[in-house]
Write a structure and sequence with these properties.
With 307 residues, the chain is of the alpha/beta class. Helices cover 36% and strands 28% of the residues. The longest helix has 16 residues, at 171-186.
Length: 307
């Protein structure tokens, strides 16, 4: 039995396309008011998992309960109090900012009068109060994202799905979106997001899962994952002769060394001897830092490129 008090719970999700398994037995559960993230390389199955949870794609197997309804048999009822921010902005370019919100409200059967009363608040949330009559093609990428987020709130959802909410945005625009998402969490909304930005996941998510080849390979709070999977200190080293140095010296001074491109990553519980060794080598440059979520991600999913 799936738990009724959880905004979202899914068990045993499977999906194949043309004989290729894309989602391979995924279980997940979101507690009320939490921000849960799904991390994974390109093609890991994040978007497909999100679409399965929303009832937009039919699973080959599994069960999904979304806000008290069975997604497979009652997708519309399940989605009535859900907001969605898709990966690509799909705002209507023929309408103004305000009209986009009005039209979207109609999908949820919200009366125009009620929508008009809500629009000032939604525009303020999006930081677009001064642009209500603007055409979509006059907005920046960050403004479009904020409008798409405000649009996802027209039905006052309890649970908001965001598929890569800040991909393609500059740092200022990303910080603005993060601020808005934190505001929604403070209002006790539940958030489910996919991302491949580790800093985004580390900042926003209470809990996250790493998805690879359609399977969840780890789940936990960001700090738990870092403590559980990676040595606490990292020294990144590059420069002339770095690979020879790694073979001859670093292997004895660090628990684990990995090569990626021109850099050697040394993972260790105590980097003092490693740093002391490096201080005497002018040809090598190094960065000594704490382990982070990206280290976990790369350890779990590998360093090779994915398309
Ligand atoms: P991610 O969001 O992690 O990048 P996706 O869920 O978008 O991954 O895709 C996972 C895999 O499933 C990819 O190989 C993709 O090409 C394939 N895929 C996704 N949707 C479809 C579809 N509608 N038809 C065929 N293949 C698909």
């Amino acid at each position: 039995m799936l738990r009724a008090n959880y905004p979202l719970e899914a068990r045993g999700l499977r999906k194949s396309y043309a004989g290729k398994v894309v989602v391979d037995g995924v279980d997940l559960a979101l507690a009320p008011g939490e921000c849960y993230g799904l991390l994974g390389p390109n093609g890991a199955g994040k978007t497909t998992t999100l679409r399965l949870c929303l009832g937009l794609t039919a699973p080959d197997a599994g069960e999904i309960r979304l806000l008290g309804a069975d997604v497979i048999t009652e997708p519309r009822r399940a989605r009535a109090r859900v907001g969605v921010v898709p990966q690509a902005d799909n705002l209507d370019p023929d309408f103004t900012v305000e009209e986009n919100l009005l039209v979207y409200g109609r999908y949820f059967g919200i009366a125009a009068r009620e929508m008009r009363a809500r629009i000032p608040m939604l525009l303020e949330f999006a930081g677009l109060s001064a642009r209500s009559q603007a055409r979509i093609n006059t907005l920046s990428g960050g403004m479009k994202r904020r409008l798409t987020l405000a649009r996802a709130l027209v039905n006052d959802p309890d649970l908001i799905f965001l598929d890569e909410p800040t991909t393609g945005l500059d740092p200022q625009a990303r910080h603005l979106i993060w601020g808005r998402l934190k505001q929604l969490l403070a209002e006790r909304k539940t958030i489910f997001l996919t991302t491949h930005f580790m800093d985004e996941a580390e900042r926003l998510c209470d809990r996250l899962s790493v998805l690879d080849h359609g399977r969840i390979v780890a789940t936990g709070a960001p700090r738990e994952l870092i403590a559980g999977h990676i040595e606490p200190q990292v020294v990144e080293v590059y420069g002339e002769g770095v690979f020879e140095w790694a073979e001859q010296h670093a292997r004895a001074l660090a628990e684990r060394c990995e090569r990626s491109g021109e850099t050697v990553f040394c993972y260790t519980r105590d980097a003092s001897r490693l740093v002391h060794d490096l201080e005497g080598r002018r040809e090598l440059r190094y960065l000594h830092r704490h382990a982070n979520l990206e280290d976990v991600f790369l350890k779990l999913t590998g360093r090779e490129l994915r398309d």
